[in-house]
Amino acid sequence: MLDKNGIARRIAKEVKNGYYVNLGIGIPTLVANFVRDDIDVEFQSENGILGMGPFPFEGEEDADLINAGKQTITALPGASFFDSATSFAMIRGRHVDLTILGAMEVAENGDIANWKIPGKMVKGMGGAMDLVASAENIIVAMMHTNRAGESKLLKRCSLPLTGVGCVTKIVTNLAVLEVTSNGFLLKERAPGVTVEEIRNATEGVLVVEGEVPEMED
Known about the structure:
- With 217 residues, the chain is α/β, with parallel strands linked by helices.
- Helix content is 14%, strand content 24%.
- Strands 4-3-2-1-5-8-10-11-12-13 form a ten-stranded mixed β-sheet. The protein has a three-stranded mixed β-sheet with strand order 7-6-9, with no helix packed on it.
- It has a single domain (4-39, 84-207), classed as Glutaconate Coenzyme A-transferase (3-Layer(aba) Sandwich).
């Protein structure tokens, strides 16, 4: 079973040379720590930065340099800063190659719910709805089940939707799955996790084709 860093490390393998990548709040922010050094990637944050680097070391934080989740970040050489209007023009203009988001729930048809739990205070929907409406390549980073052990990969989302039919791939602490017209296609297992354990933790349709390999480091 993977921890949050393990999920981020696996997703970092999906980042290709030359990509412009938006990192959502939560686990996705960790991805920048694991991208290969030999590829050129530009990380974008919707609050107005292109060229985010990994998190700063303790004692080296700059309180004026933050991401959309208000975490302190670093800026790589050549980074640029701009207003939210320009940032969302990039997003809505489909100039982002990969969007990595956290989620509370994902449905087997690719619907995502990641912004509101009814009855609980939230700061607002943020930029996720713009991202899911514009992006063509969305990977979700999430735990496979909630704290009560209930599946978060569902037949149908129970929470208010952020986007409809937009998720392409999901990486959880148990597995890597692709969203297909037939359901969640199991592509990889986390080390030590069986197909049966993944099946038991998945409410939506789980499609298993042949031998499913373990994730590689």
